[in-house]
Amino acid sequence: METNILDAVHALTRSRLTVALTGAGISVESGIPPFRGPGSLWEKIDPTEFAHIDAFMKNPARVWEVLMGAMKKVLDTARPNKAHLALAEFERRGLLSAVITQNVDSLHQKAGSQDVIEFHGTFATLVCMACGKATPSEEIGLESLPPLCACGGIYRPDCVFFGENIPMEALGRSREFASQCEAMLVVGTSATVQPAAMMPVLAKQNGATIIEVNPTPTPLTAGVTDIFLKGNAGAVLSRLAEAIPIPARG
What we know:
Blueprint: H1 2-14, E1 18-22, H2 41-44, H3 47-50, H4 53-58, H5 60-77, H6 82-92, E2 98-101, H7 107-111, E3 116-118, E4 121-128, E5 134-136, E6 155-159, H8 168-180, E7 183-187, H9 198-205, E8 209-214, H10 219-223, E9 227-230, H11 233-243
Parallel strand pairs: 1-2, 1-7, 2-3, 7-8, 8-9
Antiparallel strand pairs: 4-5, 4-6
Helix pairs in contact: 6-11, 8-9
Protein name: protein acetyllysine N-acetyltransferase
GO molecular function: histone deacetylase activity, NAD-dependent; metal ion binding; NAD+ binding
InterPro entries: DHS-like_NAD/FAD-binding_dom, NAD-dep_sirtuin_deacylases, Sirtuin, Sirtuin_cat_small_dom_sf, Ssirtuin_cat_dom
């Protein structure tokens, strides 16, 4: 582990452009359950029944009752953990240019990260499907379901449902960063869900060093990852931040 930390420090300090790709694993320490894997949300709820845009359009009250309401309660109160704070610190020190996240919790922004590409949108904002008004999620109550805008329209999360496309701007900027970066931090994701899964591969094909942070090996580890840092995201990224000399190049 110590050798790998030193290798990661060397890769990050010499990289002229570094980007991070994060997934659900980085937010588990903030009390947000993952969508896939043991103990995940999709083990309890069928995503095709409650997370597909067709299901929402057919019965928004039911989707809010079973899935969205519970998610809102968790995400409204979640706070950044040491992993989010470490990535924000990397950005402040000129070691990280952007974060590409598959998460919808907006914890990177709450931690202080300035350039966050939200691949799947955000649950931090609810949008009226009638008038288009966007409102912070924490300002909308759940006294009645589905929650309604003052105009009478139904609120939906500003995130990507199954059956919807990734925002083109997010996809385009992610591909641009992945093709140009010299190092990529892959944190808390197995990168198996497309098109996000292609970002480490694209970066690798263009000569970037891939630094993976995960508690267990993933499909990336053997064929794509250059430096594997085993452990929980908070502990590993905090250790990595401590190991990088200050002042960093600026």
